[in-house]
């Protein structure tokens, strides 16, 4: 796969749709081999490849750096966790898994309430939905939870006076992510994973025909 031809929009769409439930890559592999890219095209391709392949590692690293910046401010740590959840809710796979687990837990105590948490059915004619499928969390549109979690996290940051701290911590986390993705040499596993994801995408498009 030529990652140089992949646009930023394509990469964001892929990260939004891909399954994030897989465990992070092992640390020996994550910090294995680093080289300087020989050209801008090589750097651009490597950056996109590593951002996609080590997505779970980068997400965990950003959360850890944010939490380290708020060791003396527990309220701000809670705000960072809510922010991480609001970002994670933008991924379709994580949202579906989270909603299913919450509904399953509620069903053990209140089956009637769990029935109300089911997402509405999308009308289908000849195997095709009439409208674009909307992602729901516990029976409500996803944007409702993203808005609530983001608003609460902002309030917690404001109350804890941690807005400046979060800016510095986020800048350091993003810088560390970009530096690692720029100098980490893509290995054979990353290339094989790319081919597997391509096959899944082609097979999904074929099955929708």
Automatic annotation (TrEMBL):
Membrane topology value: Multi-pass membrane protein
BP-aspect Gene Ontology terms: vesicle-mediated transport
Alphabetically ordered keywords of this record: Membrane, Transmembrane, Transmembrane helix, Transport
Family: Belongs to the PRA1 family.
TM spans (from-to): 52-71, 77-98, 143-160, 166-183
Domain of life: Eukaryota
Chief localisation class: membrane
Localisation per UniProt entry: Endomembrane system; Membrane
The protein's name: PRA1 family protein
GO cellular component: endoplasmic reticulum; membrane
Function noted in UniProt: May be involved in both secretory and endocytic intracellular trafficking in the endosomal/prevacuolar compartments.
Organism: Hibiscus syriacus
InterPro entries xref list: Prenylated_rab_accept_PRA1
């Amino acid at each position: 796969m030529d990652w140089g031809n992949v646009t930023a929009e394509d990469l964001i769409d892929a990260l939004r749709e891909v399954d994030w439930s897989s465990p992070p890559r092992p640390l020996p592999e994550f910090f294995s081999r680093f080289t300087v890219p020989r050209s801008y095209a090589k750097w651009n391709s490597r950056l996109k490849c590593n951002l996609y392949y080590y997505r779970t590692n980068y997400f965990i690293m950003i959360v850890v750096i944010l939490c380290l910046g708020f060791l003396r401010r527990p309220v701000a740590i809670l705000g960072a966790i809510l922010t991480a959840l609001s970002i994670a809710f933008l991924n379709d796979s994580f949202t579906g898994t989270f909603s299913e687990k919450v509904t399953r837990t509620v069903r053990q105590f209140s089956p009637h309430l769990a029935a109300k948490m089911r997402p509405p059915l999308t009308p289908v004619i000849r195997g095709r939905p009439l409208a674009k499928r909307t992602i729901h969390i516990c029976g409500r549109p996803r944007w409702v939870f993203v808005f609530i979690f983001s608003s609460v996290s902002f309030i917690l940051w404001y109350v804890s006076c941690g807005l400046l701290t979060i800016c510095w911590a986020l800048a350091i986390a993003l810088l560390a992510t970009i530096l690692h993705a720029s100098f980490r040499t893509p290995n054979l596993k990353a290339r094989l994973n790319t081919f597997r994801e391509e096959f899944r995408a082609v097979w999904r498009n074929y099955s929708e025909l």
